[in-house]
Amino acid sequence: MAKTVFFTLNNFQKEGGGTIRMLGIINELARHNDEIILMSNIKDKSKVSPNVQHIALETEFSPEEKRKFQFLLGAFGYSFLNRAFSRQLESLRKSFSKLNSDDKVIFFEYLDNSIGYWLKKNNIIPSYINDIHGIASNEFIFQRKKAKSLLSKLFLKVKEKIAMALDKKVFNDAEAIIYASAAMDDYYKNLYPSLRKKNNIFLPYVLNNANVKAPDNDVIQKIKADWGITDSDFVFLFAGAYKETGGIQDLMLAFDNIAPEFPEAKLILVGDGPTFENCRTLKESLSSSERILQMGRQPYNYLSSFQEIAHVLVCPDRQNLFSDLIVHVKYLDALISGKIVINGSFKSVMEINSGKKLSLLFKPSDIDDLGHKMKDSIRHYDTLRHEFSDSKQYTLDNLTYSNYIKNLNNFGH
């Protein structure tokens, strides 16, 4: 009998949107199907349902090798890589020899997707399905707009074009694409019309029930004591990755604008990433610096405790293509906190808010509008708590992988 195989080079050590999605899909499908195989570098197998069979990969790419692989595959033909990456190719050939020819193979992340294409071209697998986790060309476009020098802009333009060429190769050759929103489906079909002929699979970014954790009172009390947070404070919380599109700088500026009017307000920032130090520098320049608590990366299982401390959770992402196409896991995590949530009105977000207003929405990249929504959340706190009182239950009832089991079962057929 044909099995459904999931492939990723990820070791699942670092929790985030990608690993949460992968585990959510695998574990939910395994509840209904015992013919599931995970090919990965996973370290802790307890994160995965005991029904799942494992094939441990002996293949790894260094960060430099990942960049080189994707650049060369986008710029040249697949055979150009066979010599440069012969070690990885032979290792993967050995791992895939353990599968049957009729097994369905789904490749999860960006590098994984490219490997699926490479393996098919080398006749190691007959076909592959891609789950789209990111849009590399969009990242380069965003960086290019922020770049100062002409040389940097030209370099990022070249990277953008090569990333688009890679996507075209990989997605056009896939048996099917798993897309996370109607907006994503439209975007890729307009960009690559040949995708309209494929039997694509709709599977939005939703919640993994296993990740719903109760707050820990000991953790709550420690956070309050360590950071001087009192019951009289009104706390805004951001928890997520520091990146250019993340909007943390916008959130800090919006908070600084409203802080004089609301002396009881504090802003907690949890997370790390490429723009962490830039945000630290910005923080020190603001008049409200002492009321912005930049806590760095924290264990994911502390998230519900941080949420319990907060009055309002803010997801301040700037306008960008990725957010229009994919709902961020931090938004879903925020919705199940039972607290007021402020989020950008992206296309993907409006899809899941259709007919049901789940949160306060602001115009992405508009610092003034974000500030206005933050003011409203303080001034009308009790009214808004009541207005959004059922958002948590709605999310748990409607926005989990268990709600999309029929779509998941399409993997194997």
Automatic annotation (TrEMBL):
Protein known as: Glycosyltransferase
Short name of any one Pfam family annotated for the protein: Glycos_transf_1
Record-linked InterPro entries: Glyco_trans_1
Keyword match Transferase: yes
SUPFAM superfamilies xrefs: UDP-Glycosyltransferase/glycogen phosphorylase
Gene Ontology molecular function terms on file: glycosyltransferase activity
TM region(s), chain numbering: none
BP-aspect Gene Ontology terms: lipopolysaccharide biosynthetic process
Organism (species): Epilithonimonas vandammei
Entry-linked Gene3D superfamilies: Glycogen Phosphorylase B
UniProt keywords, alphabetically: Transferase
Residue stretches making up the Glycosyl transferase family domain: 221-388
